[in-house]
């Protein structure tokens, strides 16, 4: 693990001034990069710590913003913003592209080696970048088995990994089946991991405000899902790439 540094980056998206968290590993060389998307509540210290951990592993990591620097702890306010957003692929792509531009602008980012990892709404944004044909090495999502507009999954150019809780009422079996059917029909290299007994947002530590029904922390599966994400990056976006391969 390497020493890392962080800074806040502001950029426009979705008619707002977004405030992302950029984490950089030690050194001056170019590195693979990870675009990290938060749950619907928005960017919090949970995602910032994940970005920091990825930087310690050697990645450039940008935890991006969804709500113009705000964290939406009120479930009704969060749903009022996220449900229309999730129904509008173009808005999600706009948010994703704006953050991706920031990540690519960082001089140490290798623009040909970028992954999108996201949770909930942030994962849906990553999937929409894939459906928009963005050159990514891998897309990984937790709690985001969202489907897109017909036929657009064929534009995904990288493997897709999805993790979901078996008891998640927001991403129930019918939704999971629709997602995997879309990926299969498009010829995507896809994987789905179902974490037994887990609810929605099972990866997110408990919060001190109300949440929507069906949300619950599962410490064991949270650790497993994070290890699965790190292993996914090691497979599809290794920090050190053998250019002779």
Automatic annotation (TrEMBL):
Q: Which Pfam family is one of this chain's hits? A: DLH
Q: Does the keyword Hydrolase apply?
A: yes
Molecular functions per Gene Ontology: hydrolase activity
Q: Which UniProt keywords apply?
A: Hydrolase
Annotated signal sequence range: none
Q: Please name the InterPro entries in this protein's record.
A: AB_hydrolase_fold, Dienelactn_hydro, FrsA_esterase
- Domain spans labelled Dienelactone hydrolase: 19-235
Note the Gene3D superfamilies from the entry: alpha/beta hydrolase
Q: Does the keyword Hydrolase apply?
A: yes
Q: Which family does it belong to?
A: Belongs to the AB hydrolase superfamily.
PANTHER family per record: DIENELACTONE HYDROLASE DOMAIN-CONTAINING PROTEIN (PTHR22946:SF0), DIENELACTONE HYDROLASE DOMAIN-CONTAINING PROTEIN-RELATED (PTHR22946)
**What is the designated name of this protein?**
Dienelactone hydrolase family protein
